[in-house]
């Protein structure tokens, strides 16, 4: 598979990733992303039809802990790091019409 | 008390009452104050907080209580690790001023071992980089030559140890971010087996690759720190329950008869001749120590870089989605009519908060995970990762450890590779395969170049066989001169 990366595609990917790029940044990143994609396509040289993907890094799955209620962070302390908070929660701009 | 004492020396003297934790901490603070201006290795120095911790350790001793294995040892922490009450930014503007309400498990374990958390070290933003030039707070300078990089992304942690501001630090290694800067600064750097050390409280870059590990002035110091931070953590489901070996005891073990594999693929085009000569000489030293040297094959090495960038960036694009201006860090709310929507706030925040390298990687990661491309790129890379892991499995049937250069070149100049991302990425070519396989690796100082720049010997061991790696590292260290940059003397 050979994929051509163009400006429109980078703008679309940026939108998916919630990134707003300046014009010159879009241009530079289009060039660099095209280089990167061309480079990673060297993996196509390998036949991996019968190879299992590495879905799990460890040799064995580690044991899960029991599902028990434990103390958690103090909500006030956590909210203290929020750029804006209100009514005991994280405040965001209105996104549903009232 | 000199600031450049090794980890074990400080801990033993504090425990024996020959010196105090306060003296050890003050010595480190003095060294940091004197040298950090030139190097930018620390982003935050917790003067008062560190002195309070030291007083608490001294009080504990005065009460007759037994002190921990890192009693009074000042340790710097990579700014990717959360420290309760101390600013943690991952060297990004998007987390400027963020004060975590909790400690990373590794930090909590250091505190429990009576170490002194002295400050936060500089790094590439979100650990993305090989030169520490991507920090939003300026690059770190290499103590051997301030016009050169210390390597990345744990460049601050490496430089702080090299310059003897502290005798140990913590870093994180995703594709080589402990081993490569260790090599470029003449320090010891350890990446443990994936899952050996908890990642709870490590600001994630690529979760299937990230591992926390120590830098130290010497192998035994690194062994002690790794012993303290290793082991199962209920807060990290990927941390392993396997027993933690006595790494310090391993440092004294004979390596006679141990089989060392040398992969031809790591001595190919692109390797600096002086680095090659130094590493071949290092392998001869190990042979003289009684090791048996054998060639091994790692045929998929040349695909590691492409595989790594697909997997790491895919995971990064997902992990970094949490930085949206809602729960912590920076928020930019676009002004003007029609602009007060959530999506616009996410975009404006991420645009202002992320640097170019982070954006570049988020874009590649989003691309390889997007509809229509997932199988061709991400799934393909996961399959090649399996082939790379199998290479190591095969090799470790024949040998006990694998030795190679850590980095293809000595420290390069600041700015030399910033405009060519691919050239920069190639700097990690020898460290990436072990990261993809999840196996432990370390870098130990070898003979420097003629111009006096450090060179690192990489030793890679099978899964959970860190002890074997430490035995070889300590045996080599005993036959090679320690490296101390002029700045630290």
TrEMBL record, chain A:
* Underlying gene: gatC
Quaternary state and partners of this protein? Answer: Heterotrimer of A, B and C subunits.
Q: Do you know which Pfam families this protein is assigned to?
A: GatC
Q: Which reaction does it catalyse?
A: L-glutamyl-tRNA(Gln) + L-glutamine + ATP + H2O = L-glutaminyl-tRNA(Gln) + L-glutamate + ADP + phosphate + H(+); L-aspartyl-tRNA(Asn) + L-glutamine + ATP + H2O = L-asparaginyl-tRNA(Asn) + L-glutamate + ADP + phosphate + 2 H(+)
Alphabetic keyword roster: ATP-binding, Ligase, Nucleotide-binding, Protein biosynthesis
Q: Give the InterPro entries listed for this entry.
A: Asp/Glu-ADT_sf_sub_c, GatC
What's this protein's name?
Answer: Aspartyl/glutamyl-tRNA(Asn/Gln) amidotransferase subunit C
State its role. Allows the formation of correctly charged Asn-tRNA(Asn) or Gln-tRNA(Gln) through the transamidation of misacylated Asp-tRNA(Asn) or Glu-tRNA(Gln) in organisms which lack either or both of asparaginyl-tRNA or glutaminyl-tRNA synthetases. The reaction takes place in the presence of glutamine and ATP through an activated phospho-Asp-tRNA(Asn) or phospho-Glu-tRNA(Gln).
Q: What family does the entry list?
A: Belongs to the GatC family.
Asked if Calcium is a keyword of the record, the answer is: no
Source organism (scientific name): Pendulispora rubella
Question: Which EC number(s) does UniProt give?
Answer: 6.3.5.-
TrEMBL record, chain B:
InterPro entries reported for this sequence: Amidase (IPR000120), Amidase_CS (IPR020556), Amidase_dom (IPR023631), AS_sf (IPR036928), GatA (IPR004412)
Keywords per UniProt: ATP-binding, Ligase, Nucleotide-binding, Protein biosynthesis
Q: One Pfam family for this entry, by name? A: Amidase
Name of the top EC class for this enzyme:
ligase
Entry's transmembrane regions: none
EC number(s) stated in the UniProt entry for this protein: 6.3.5.7
Domain named Amidase is located at 23-468
Catalytic activity field: L-glutamyl-tRNA(Gln) + L-glutamine + ATP + H2O = L-glutaminyl-tRNA(Gln) + L-glutamate + ADP + phosphate + H(+)
User: Where is the catalytic site?
Assistant: 78 (charge relay system), 153 (charge relay system), 177 (acyl-ester intermediate)
Query: How does this polypeptide assemble, per the annotation?
Result: Heterotrimer of A, B and C subunits.
Instruction: Spell out the family assignment given in the record's similarity comment.
Output: Belongs to the amidase family. GatA subfamily.
Alphabetized HAMAP family for the sequence: GatA
What this protein is reported to do is described as: Allows the formation of correctly charged Gln-tRNA(Gln) through the transamidation of misacylated Glu-tRNA(Gln) in organisms which lack glutaminyl-tRNA synthetase. The reaction takes place in the presence of glutamine and ATP through an activated gamma-phospho-Glu-tRNA(Gln).
Q: What is this protein called?
A: Glutamyl-tRNA(Gln) amidotransferase subunit A
Q: Which organism is it from?
A: Pendulispora rubella
